[in-house]
Amino acid sequence: MTPVTVFAGRSVALFGLGGSGLATARALKAGGADVAAWDDKAESRDKAAAEGIAVVDLADGDWSGFAALVLSPGVPLTHPQPHWTVAKAKAAGVEIIGDVELFFRERAKIAPGSPVICITGTNGKSTTTALIAHVLGQAGRDVQMGGNIGTAVLALEPPAADRIHVIECSSYQIDLAPSMAPTVGIQMNLTPDHLDRHGTFEDYGAIKERLVAASDIAVVGVDDEPSKQMARRRAASGKKLVKISGEQPLDEGVFAGVTANQGRLDTRIVAVQDGKPRVVANLAGIGSLRGSHNAQNAAAAFAACSALGLTDAEIAAGFRSYPGLKHRMEEIGRIGRVVFINDSKATNADSTEKALTSFHDIFWILGGKAKEGGIESLRRYFPNIAKAYLIGAASDLFAATFDDDGRVTYERSETLDRAVADATRDALAWPGEGEIAVLLSPACASFDQYPNFEVRGDSFRVLVQALPGFEPFEAK
């Protein structure tokens, strides 16, 4: 835990007692603050009270006595309308902040200048965060990873001069962290998302850019136009900038996967410094870093780790041993040339697109509770599908798409256990010599058959591991 001492002896209102909110309440209390916490859910309030956290109905509270309102990131700050606690705080002149802001204030007090890497972006930030933390850990560094991934930021060990914090930041968290100042700030990419919470794409992008602007070193992807504009503004500021790309060569920065050689993606990571390029790593054969999207993730990880003093060899070794993020293009194992991929975290078509570009001869398990648009946007990748296996509530919708297109043979498996058996049977009988994939990438929410995508992915893993001849994936 990182005790938050910057509010010691003062009263702080806190709304939202989920995972990060409860961790924040504990950290504030441990640091000597007088915490008045509330949540709309009785079970959350009861859990906090059982830990000795004061539960106070903030609707009736005296807001003139609060030094700050700490808002959980899932609670609306501006859109679709401000939460009622936000209105009360503003009326009383009380500042509104979040857990990441508390972390940076405590860092400024106890270990200013301690290394912190913050990662944001519409896609790829979780993989990049996990990859950076893994590379640093493999190189013997003291690493703490959390934020929007896994562990709440204030549940991590405190900042220290020889400890590196690697923090995934959502737009919600950045919006509540006005004094964040990372050592390295990474902006991966920007596409429309969370507009219900930010109002416009421009507002969403401006919030993401705060992380870049506040960083000592900014690492910015330039494979989409909005991020490219961010990079230009950063360069104009005269502050340190490292551009990254997974799609194009750069005259300065880190790039990957920009050429095709006999139909195969170039897997080299190239760093260009002072106009001089050098190959610093190669992703060939690293199953957990397949595809051009992971090439950009690796480029970002290289830039960040290099900025903190790791050698090319240390970073390349970390890439080779990276096991991957659970449920995101996770290579479970194989039977001969058939590789089994758990991409259960792909709960919409945009996420599934990354998987469909990473393989040919795909035996695709998909379905669940469909999102708007279904899989219409994936038609261009249908030539990569050897056969599809439909599960869950979306079966009729997806069957209609395949029937209309006419290029994909499919089977209605209905349940995941049946789909794994059907896909394995067909994959093992597929002619040829190259690698083929049995891919769970549902392009759907899980809620028709599973409580969340994690349970769905775990079920897939158990089913695959029970197959005759299965060999588990082992990081090299």
List keywords for this structure.
about 475 residues, 9-stranded mixed beta sheet, about 25% strand, alpha/beta, 7-stranded mixed beta sheet
Rg:
23 Å
Largest sheet: 9 strands, mixed
Which of globular, elongated, flat, extended, rod-shaped describes the shape? globular
Largest beta sheet: strand ordering: 6-7-5-8-9-10-11-14-15
- The portion of residues forming beta strands comes to 15-25%
N- and C-termini, Cα separation? 33 Å
Average residue-wise pLDDT:
92
DSSP strand tally: 24
Helix proportion range: 25-40%
Structural class: alpha/beta
Q: What is the overall number of helices? A: 15
Low-pLDDT residue intervals, each spanning 5 or more residues: 260-264
Structure description:
With 476 residues, the protein is of the alpha/beta class. It has 15 helices and 24 strands. It has helices at residues 19-30, 42-50, 84-91, 99-110, 125-138, 171-175, 195-198, 201-214, 225-237, 291-307, 312-321, 349-356, 395-405, 416-428, 453-465; strands at 11-15, 34-38, 66-71, 95-97, 116-120, 142-147, 163-168, 184-187, 217-221, 240-245, 253-256, 260-261, 264-265, 268-273, 276-282, 330-335, 338-342, 362-367, 369-370, 385-391, 410-414, 436-440, 444-445, 471-472. The strands form 5 sheets. Strands 6-7-5-8-9-10-11-14-15 form a 9-stranded mixed beta sheet, sandwiched between helices. It has a 7-stranded mixed beta sheet with strand order 21-20-18-22-17-16-24, sandwiched between helices. The protein has a 4-stranded parallel beta sheet with strand order 2-1-3-4, with helices on both faces. Strand 20 (385-391), helix 13 and strand 21 form a beta-alpha-beta unit. The longest helix has 17 residues, at 291-307. The two termini are 33 Å apart. 51% of the residues are buried.
